[in-house]
Amino acid sequence: MEEDTSVLLWAAEEGDVPILDLHGMRGVEARHVLESFLHHHYLQGERVVRIVHGRGDGILRQEVHHLLSHIHFVDQFQDATHPALVGAVTVALFYSSQSK
């Protein structure tokens, strides 16, 4: 992982980045809200976002990761590594809009 990527992913956990909280949402609703959120912030030129899905039974986390793996402008994503966020938050890094 290149240094710039590491810094951006750290910023997604610790910095002032767009955050989407999906608590209380299920399936289709969460997918629709997440797709809109991702597209909006990518078009705004953001590079990283934070997605809060909660821990629970992990179904919403799986849905989020599945969708992120199919969005063409998502470079990479990972579970947050901060101890308070592990399993409850995913951070995503977009390709630079200038490079796509």
Automatic annotation (TrEMBL):
Stored Pfam families: Smr (PF01713)
Ranges for domain Smr: 20-94
Protein name: MutS2 protein
